[in-house]
Specification:
Layout: H1 2-21, H2 25-37, H3 42-70, H4 83-96, E1 101-102, E2 108-109, H5 112-126, H6 134-143, H7 150-156, H8 162-171, H9 185-191
Antiparallel strand pairs: 1-2
Transmembrane segments: 6-29
Protein name: RNA-directed DNA polymerase
Keywords: Membrane, Transmembrane, Transmembrane helix
Length: 194
């Protein structure tokens, strides 16, 4: 009786912690737990099997999400999520977040609107051509040695060949370099049959 109470307590704790952390797991695991407590019947077995399949799909979906979030090269297919990978992904997000900037008066700005204004102002100044000295620019261009010859330029402007695209695709890491459509190289290699 004591073992049953401990296992039931452990399972209810696992269900509550999962449902609070991961959307979709809590209700599924509760339903699975309820079915497993009832006496065996063929209908319940089929429902239990379908719940296990759904649970595996959710785990795989969660794993893909965290793999892309962590961008860890060493996370291989088949590894399960752990607190380590969640911390790594969260640390990466924290490191890549701009928390604030100092304006031209030396005042720290942390409001999103102020940060956006400072960035827009900075890059507008950097990329504007209002104060361009064209004679100095021409001197710099003339002093720069030519690195691309005419034959190199003709090679660079040729249309892409299928073999070049395939070679470039296979040299990319399969779970990195999301394209503008959000797809990874893995998708194009496996799904399109290149």
């Amino acid at each position: 009786m004591l073992n049953y109470d401990i296992s039931q307590l452990y399972l209810s704790f696992a269900i509550s912690s999962l449902s609070s952390c991961i959307f979709g797991f809590g209700p599924l695991l509760e339903k699975l737990y309820d079915i497993m407590r009832q006496p065996y019947s063929p209908e319940q077995y089929e429902e239990q099997r379908l719940l296990h399949v759904q649970h595996s799909k959710l785990l795989a979906q969660q794993e893909r999400y965290w793999r892309q979030r962590s961008r860890a090269i060493w996370l291989k297919d088949g590894d399960r999520n752990s607190a380590f990978f969640h911390r790594r992904a969260s640390n990466r997000k924290s490191r890549n977040t701009i928390k604030g900037l100092t304006n031209e008066n030396g005042v720290w700005q942390s409001e999103p609107y102020e940060i956006q204004h400072l960035l827009m102002q900075y890059f507008s100044n950097v990329f504007s051509s209002d104060h361009t000295d064209f004679t100095a620019l021409e001197e710099v261009i003339n002093a720069t040695p030519v690195k691309v010859t005419d034959s190199m330029n003709s090679d660079l402007t040729k249309p892409y060949m299928d073999e070049e695209i395939k070679s470039a695709l296979f040299h990319m890491h399969p779970s990195k370099s999301l394209g503008p459509d959000g797809m990874t190289p893995f998708f194009f290699i496996k799904r399109i049959g290149i």
